[in-house]
Design a protein that fits this description.
This protein is α/β, with parallel strands linked by helices. Helix content is 41%, strand content 20%. The chain is globular and about 45 Å long.
Length: 218
């Protein structure tokens, strides 16, 4: 079967200087805005909040903060905190924000109503993903929300096939293909949550965006 297993390889964006990181971060924002990333997060958040307009949310791995800004526009009464370990990538993220290691979150149990992590988990091994899910869930009062890529052939081919038309950078294309190869199938993500001792999760695939969302309620 094509792409039957995850293949994790280093991605360049995490180590780029600011002048090279900015164009690639801008590409990620475009992909989120126009190719399904934000819509998957919005849908998951609507399901998790049950219409609540006032809540606190921690965005782990926020990068440039485009998802946090999108949520703030949709929920003006929400209190959103951005967190990332890469000071360059989070340079334009909205405040409040802090630089911290996702494996060593500087928060106590149930510090935020919702914890969100988008496009982060695929960078890590299954064992690390289990540890992260357990830690993220521990900080959430109401629910943990995960959004990531779905490991399929079409999203793997999308960036190189559309590079000329959309003007993706070379690094965006290479990193994007590696991200898809490292990402998940829905049953895999559900199994990793079960291994993290998180029960009753809801996992959904989003087409044609080829994104996966997971909601783990308290």
């Amino acid at each position: 079967m094509i792409f039957s297993k995850r293949l994790i390889r280093p991605e360049a964006l995490d180590h780029l200087p600011p002048e090279k990181a900015r164009p690639n971060l801008a590409d990620i924002v475009r992909l989120n805005q126009y190719f399904g990333g934000h819509s998957a997060v919005r849908k998951a958040l609507r399901q998790a909040t049950n219409g609540d307009q006032q809540f606190s949310l921690l965005d782990i791995g926020c990068a440039s903060g485009d998802t946090a800004r999108m949520i703030q526009e949709a929920y003006p009464l929400a209190k959103i905190t951005c967190l990332d370990y890469n000071v360059v990538n989070m340079g334009h993220a909205p405040y409040p924000k802090l630089m911290a290691d996702a494996f060593r979150l500087p928060f106590g149990p149930r510090s935020f109503d919702f914890v969100l992590s988008s496009l982060l988990l695929h960078h890590f091994s299954d064992e690390q993903v289990i540890a992260l899910l357990r830690a993220f869930y521990g900080v959430a009062r109401e629910a943990l929300l995960i959004c990531d890529l779905e490991r399929r052939l079409l999203p793997y081919l999308f960036l190189p096939a559309t590079k000329v038309f959309f003007g993706w950078t070379r690094i965006t294309v290479r990193d994007g293909m590696r991200s898809v190869r490292a990402s998940f199938r829905a049953p895999e993500l559900a199994r990793l949550a079960a291994d993290a001792e998180i029960a009753g999760v809801a996992v959904e695939t989003h087409r044609p965006a080829f994104r996966i969302s997971l909601i783990a309620r308290r």
